[in-house]
Specification:
Layout (H helix, E strand, L loop, with lengths): L7 H7 L22 H31 L4 E2 L3 E3 L6 H8 L4 E2 L5 H11 L3 E9 L3 E8 L2 E7 L2 E6 L4 E2 L10 E5 L19 H13 L6 E4 L3 E5 L5 E5 L5 H17 L4 E5 L7 E4 L2
Parallel strand pairs: 2-5, 6-9, 9-10, 12-13
Antiparallel strand pairs: 1-3, 4-5, 6-7, 7-8, 10-11, 11-12, 13-14
C-alpha cells in the first residue's frame, strides 16, 4: 500500500538514479531607485531653502521699515499753496512719525480734498526712504460776489470759495442783495456750488453790459447795470432772449432820449412786457 503512494522522487532513489535538483522560490532583485527622481528631490529642497531665506529677508526689511528712523515720515512737503497750515495737514492725514509704507496716497488725497474744498485736486507722491510730497492744485476764482459787504468767490466749476487770499485782477464783480436760487429776500445761505447754467448766464450778461459798468443782482430784478442815461437796466435772472433784450434796450434808450424821458429804471426781464418807472 505504501508502495502505491511512493512519489517519483522515492522511485528514483530506489532505482539508484540521481535526484533532480530542488527548485527554490523565485527571487527578485531589489528595486533600483530611478535616477530621474533625484533632481526633483534636490529642487524641492532648494526651493524650501530659498523660501526660508526670502522670508527672513522680508522680515528684516519689514522690521527696518518699521523701526529705523530713516524710513519714518516726520512731516510731508506741501506745495501749491501758501495758505495751508502744515500742522493741520499732519493732523488730518496722520503723517507724523509713521513708517513710510503706511502712507497711502489715495487716502491722503481724499482726506485733504474734503478738508480743503478750495483745492481742485491734490497729488500725493510717496518716495523712499521717507519722503511724502503733497501738491495742492488751487481753484482759481472767476467771480467775486459782493453780498452786502460779505464776499464769496466762485471758480469756473461753480464751487464757492469763502476765503481767498490772492485776488486776480480780472474777476467778474457782482454787487448784490441776493443770489440766484434764493428762496426769498432774506435767504442768506449760499449753496456749496452754483450750476453751470448760472455761470454761463452770468458770463454772457457780463459781456453784454458796457465796459466799466458795475454788474448788479437783486432778488426782485435779477441782473442789471447803470446806463449812461442814468437809469438802471434790468435784464432778469438769466440770459434767456439776451440778444433780443439788448436790441430792445438800445431802441428804448433812443426813444427815451428823443422824447426827453428820464426813467429811474427799465426792466426787460419779460421781452413781451417791458416796463419802465419814473423816479419818485
Amino acid at each position: 500500500m505504501a508502495g502505491i503512494f511512493k512519489t517519483n522522487r522515492n522511485r528514483l532513489r530506489d532505482q539508484g538514479q540521481p535526484l533532480p535538483a530542488m527548485q527554490s522560490r523565485k527571487s527578485y532583485p531589489a528595486p533600483v531607485q530611478s535616477d530621474f527622481l533625484q533632481p526633483a528631490l534636490k529642487k524641492k529642497r532648494s526651493t524650501r531653502i530659498v523660501s526660508m531665506v526670502l522670508t527672513v529677508l522680508l522680515g528684516c526689511a519689514a522690521a527696518a521699515f518699521t523701526l529705523l528712523p530713516q524710513f519714518r515720515v516726520t512731516a510731508p512737503i506741501v506745495t501749491g499753496s501758501e495758505n495751508v497750515n502744515l500742522d493741520e495737514i499732519n493732523y488730518y492725514t496722520g503723517l507724523r512719525n509713521i513708517p513710510i509704507y503706511m502712507a497711502n496716497p489715495d487716502e491722503i488725497s481724499n482726506v485733504l480734498l474734503k478738508r480743503y474744498p478750495e483745492a481742485r485736486a491734490i497729488d500725493v507722491k510717496v518716495e523712499l526712504p521717507s519722503r511724502v510730497t503733497i501738491n495742492l492744485v488751487q481753484r482759481v476764482p472767476l467771480i467775486e460776489w459782493d453780498f452786502g459787504g460779505s464776499k464769496i468767490w466762485i471758480d469756473e466749476d461753480g464751487t464757492i470759495l469763502r476765503e481767498q487770499q490772492a485776488i486776480p485782477g480780472d474777476l467778474i464783480y457782482v454787487l448784490s442783495n441776493s443770489f440766484p436760487g434764493a428762496r426769498n429776500r432774506n435767504d442768506r445761505k449760499f449753496p456749496e456750488k452754483f450750476s453751470k447754467k448760472m455761470l454761463t448766464a452770468l458770463i454772457e450778461i457780463n459781456q453784454s453790459k458796457p465796459q466799466g459798468k458795475t454788474l448788479f443782482y437783486t432778488y426782485d430784478n435779477g441782473y442789471g447795470w447803470q446806463t449812461d442815461q442814468g437809469y438802471t437796466l434790468w435784464i432778469g435772472i438769466d440770459n434767456s432772449n439776451l440778444t433780443e433784450k439788448m436790441r430792445m434796450a438800445e431802441s428804448l434808450g433812443m426813444y427815451f432820449k428823443e422824447n426827453e424821458i428820464e426813467p429811474e429804471m427799465l426792466s426787460l426781464e419779460f421781452p413781451d412786457a417791458p416796463y419802465f418807472r419814473y423816479a419818485e
